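quick one, 270 residues, struct below
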Amino acid sequence: MILLDGKIARAHYSSLLEKRIKELSFVPCLVILQVGNRTDSNSYIKAKKSFAQKVGVKEIHINFPEDVGQEELIEAVKKYNQDESVNGIIIQLPLPPQINSEIVLNLIDPKKDIDGLNCATKFLPATARGIRELIKFYKIELAGKKVTVLGRSKLVGEPVAEMCHEEGALVTICHSKTENTPQKAQDADILIVAVGKPNLVGREYVKEGQVVIDVGITRHSEGQLVGDVNFNEVKDIVHMITPVPGGVGQMTVLALFENLIDACYSNKNN
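---
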């Protein structure tokens, strides 16, 4: 079994990213808009801020109270859309129920939508791009391969499936209403799991020689992070597998900043 180590891949791509940043004539700026104080959101934002400091990106973090009105958040988006010193804007999800996420996300300037969640975005969503980078780092060919994606969320499943399709893969998407999901998973050359159910995927979903990419991450009550794939149950069957933590999550943060620097170069040249 070969471990698809996101830390190793990210270190490789980070050095390339830092070089691109140093070649800019300005310091890139990322704005993070957060509502409330969710533990998981705080953790994700901490990772983004840490990476920003490492590669030389300025970050502005605005934390609104849980009961903030939608209009106040919209005004913040409009403000940073117009601020020419800001190159990227992300809104940490999920948002509380009084805010329509779709409306707010679609108000972000598509040229600054580095999370890739605006309907007119210029960017591949960060998780999909991160998976693509990880696959390329380990020289895994997508073209002509059978790929099964478990999960069809707009944040992960759909964009990952679309990315694989654009790379020439034959893609099958499975969701909660799909029949014979374990068999469809077994049939794949590459299995990508993004359902948010810890340890869902066991030996009946996999086969020898398969590549398994686990996007899920859940924190158990005792603090342990686990993926959607039962790692210990499948690791001796499959050919390649991502760990949790240390796999896709590492690449997602990297991809967010790759999108940011792409935005800097694109807007500089326009």
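The chain has nine helices and eleven strands.
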